[in-house]
Amino acid sequence: MRIDIVVPFLLADCTGGKSGFSLEADTLEEAIQGLFAEYPLLRHHVYNEEGQIRQHVLLYYNDENIEWLDNRQIPLQTGDRLLVLQAVSGG
């Protein structure tokens, strides 16, 4: 199944200039692993040194933050998407 991936324009340099594309995977976990296998530089911007999602980054599977999911072995459906969101803070 194909899942649509959306990354912020600021991180498109990590994905060959693409902010929207799709990947083939069977489950959400496979899609996440495939995303970072294909674009390893993106992993550095999403995860910290301890392997946790960085404080100002959110990964959304459709309308749910993946941190709130009990299980990432969710079978993908047509129309599913994974969004990488980068919060901007400061004053």
Automatic annotation (TrEMBL):
Q: Which InterPro entries match?
A: Beta-grasp_dom_sf, Mopterin_synth/thiamin_S_b, Sulfur_Carrier/Prot_Modifier, ThiS/MoaD-like
- PANTHER family referenced in this protein's UniProt entry, alphabetically: SULFUR CARRIER PROTEIN CYSO, SULFUR CARRIER PROTEIN SLR0821-RELATED
Q: Which organism is it from?
A: Paenibacillus mendelii
What is the name of this protein? MoaD/ThiS family protein
Question: What Pfam families does this protein map onto?
Answer: ThiS
